[in-house]
Fold these 2 entries.
Entry 1:
Amino acid sequence: MAPRLTFLGSGDAFNAAGRGHSCYLLDDAQGSFTVDFGPTALAALKRLGRNPADLDHVLLTHLHGDHFAGLPFLLLDGCYEHPRGRPLVVGGPPGVEERVRALARACYPDIFGKPLPFELRFVEWEVGRPVDLSGRSVLPRPAYHQDLPERAFLLRLSLDGREVAFTGDTGWSEELRELARGADLLVAECSFFDSDYDRHLSHRILREKLPSIPCRRIVLTHLGEEARLHAGELRELGASTGIELIVGEDLLSVEI
Ligand SMILES: [Zn+2]
């Protein structure tokens, strides 16, 4: 069975059009994990009837709240609601452990007062260094989204012989073509319709770049209000250039 991607959320930081924060559940032969985990992610998992304790990893593209601030609730759920047996590995930018622990402590000051009943491990991304997590390969690339010392990443994953690429949050750069090259599925953010802000992708940028992106299946995510309203036009542009372009929707599930 081919691995699957399910949208736990498809909206931007502002929950545009009532959508959850962009976050993805991946199911493969080894089990399940997520890419990003915003504040609405746990609710979406439960809407799907999934047990949060079954997740092996949470792979973070960057440390903006809409992409990682659901983790304190996942940790708490693993302590009390669905006691977790298996370890949880959180991958993310340099400093990920300190940020996640600080956030969890700000929410629940005594959360680390005694040892968690499960192993919590952290892995830091380095540009161009592949990480193997239980047979799943993760290749981080640089995103164009934040100023140092903050760092955002594009992630390319190999799962059961299939390739899926995530832009996370980023403006346009040539790295995106390399990220997408030959992938079975590209999960691309499209925050804006017609904006000059260059640290997110927009409808305008994608219209210009879409024909040259070396991937034939693209799913749009992180959609702001206007970008969602006009997403049908991108779908039509995709069709005219031989690209299957899917508009992301909360709880939508696609084969990779
Ligand atoms: Zn961001």
Note: The chain has one domain: 4-125+134-255.
Entry 2:
Amino acid sequence: MVSFQLSEEQEQMRKTAREFSRAEIRPVAAHYDETEQVPWPVLERASKLGLTTYRYPEKYGGGGIESLLTACVITEELSHGCAGIANTLLGCDTVAIPILLTGTESQKERWLPLFCDPNKVRLGAFALTEAEAGSDVAALRATAKRDGNFYILNGRKQYISFAGIADLYLVFAKVDGSEITAFLVEAGTPGLSVGNKEKKMGMRASQLCEVMLDDVRVPVQNRLGQEGQGFYVAMKTFEYNRPLISSLAIGVARAAYEYALTYAKQRVQFNRPIIANQAISFLLADMATNIEAARLLVWKAAWMIDQGLPANAAASMAKGYAADLAMQVTTDAVQILGGNGLMRDYPVEKWMRDAKILQIVEGTSQIQRMIISQLLAVPQT
Ligand SMILES: Cc1cc2nc3c(=O)[nH]c(=O)nc-3n(C[C@H](O)[C@H](O)[C@H](O)COP(=O)(O)OP(=O)(O)OC[C@H]3O[C@@H](n4cnc5c(N)ncnc54)[C@H](O)[C@@H]3O)c2cc1C
């Protein structure tokens, strides 16, 4: 049976996230965009409210709301305030989710309670991308060499979110030159260092740095999965995360649509509000329709993952569609605001910059289409 009715718990969580977003995120969004600082005060308040770790099992200190669909509902609301800040609020998931999805029980018991501590914000860094291995992750060159009860990691990672402020890194490297393997590396481990903060176009409240690995010794028990299972760890994480990143996109798109709608009703040219022109009202109609369509794709993908169904294609459809939609909606919102749309005194140019990032992270829009087309050739059961 198909139902679009959220449960009481989901409605309650949505309300909490919406109120938090209005009161704590939107008012400081321009500040963090301008300064590119880490929004620690927002993170701390969100953490105390349980808005960062509600989806982890209670036995590890999480909120026990283990539904990705609920997480998508919440993430859309937070991103409606600011996608960059909302992305930083997902900052523990980058490593805690792969541990939850693929870790051993003792790894979960060791790391997840640290991430779920409401009194200390802890972030993770998912270190996969390299200069020569972006979309083609299998081309990565970082190496891991076994040395007794340790591995020795060497290599360079680029564009790693939360590097420099993360407590735990998930580093992907090749054992014996071919077996992609995932390793948990604690911040402060000798040989792990971080480059300068990247200056980027959008989502500027979310920090990005290069990571250098020079003879980093990692205990064998910090290997996530078996040797050669790193690709699986990464793909399993992407499948789970893509609906969440899609929800960031919907939040941005909704913010831009609502702003443009209000503006179009108020802005008078040729003696009537600009919304009286079909050219403008049809743009707004398309925005509203496509946001609904994107949300349905996202909720379906999240629901499939919650049911334990194979959801690779659904997650890629949601991510590709939602990110492209956010780009289109924010671009049209700038158009509706005319010259004002380009000015930093108005929020829509920021939303347009944020949306562009979402077409690139967590697999570009082209890569989502590549995954969908490959899976269409081999239907999932
Ligand atoms: C804000 C931000 C945060 C990030 N955070 C992280 C992080 O936390 N951890 C991490 O590991 N990485 C992270 N990344 C890196 C990100 O995952 C990569 O930038 C992304 O996967 C694309 O890789 P690339 O930049 O090397 O582009 P490339 O792979 O070089 O792609 C360039 C262009 O070619 C296209 N293209 C490539 N191959 C194909 C193909 N087969 N068919 C069609 N088109 C193709 C792409 O779609 C793109 O348009 C982040 C990047 C950004 C911008």
Note: The chain has eleven helices and ten strands.
